[in-house]
Write a structure and sequence with these properties.
Oligomer: single chain
CATH topology: Rossmann fold
Number of strands: 5
Radius of gyration: 15 Å
Strand content: 15-25%
Structural class: alpha/beta
Number of domains: 1
Order of helices and strands: EHEHHEHEHHE
Helix content: 40-55%
Strand order of the largest sheet: 3-2-1-4-5
Length: about 140
């Protein structure tokens, strides 16, 4: 069973679906968790090249990751948090490989084929970039 799970977070309500699902899986597997969020704004993508200060986006993303990590740790879950910068699919796959994850878990927005063509899909790109199993959990629809 799974021992090291990477959870890709968006810093949005969509994350609730994958976190709820993974909590159940962790109860069975006792897996270690790596949370990752990829900041992909202008500053995040160009920070090193132009020696830029952290943007508001990056500060809020770091706070969010710290909050989610702390919540999971309170429940006895072993958690690492990674704030990456750049292209989300590439960063997610690279991190999963680097830390030796045996599962990548993500929420999806539930776009259909044409929505993915127009909006793109991080989950679709990740699936095509890795041999690591990818668990996709649809986000709950708002009524």
């Amino acid at each position: 069973m799974y021992q090291h799970i990477l959870i890709a977070l968006e810093n949005s309500p969509t994350d609730e679906a994958i976190l709820a699902h993974i909590r159940k899986l962790i109860a069975i597997t006792k897996a270690k968790i790596v949370l990752i969020h990829v900041a992909d704004g202008f500053v995040a993508r160009n920070q090193d090249q132009f020696n830029l200060e952290d943007s508001e986006e990056i500060r809020k993303d770091r706070e969010y990751l710290d909050q989610v990590r702390a919540t999971l740790e309170k429940d006895g879950i072993v958690v690492e948090a990674v704030l990456a910068r750049g292209d989300p699919p590439s960063q997610i796959v690279e991190c999963a490989q680097r830390v030796g994850c045996d599962l990548i878990a993500m929420s999806t927005h539930g776009h259909k084929f044409f929505g993915d063509l127009i909006l793109g899909s991080v989950s679709t790109a990740v699936r095509h970039m890795t041999d690591i199993p990818v668990l996709l959990v649809p986000a709950r629809k708002k009524k």
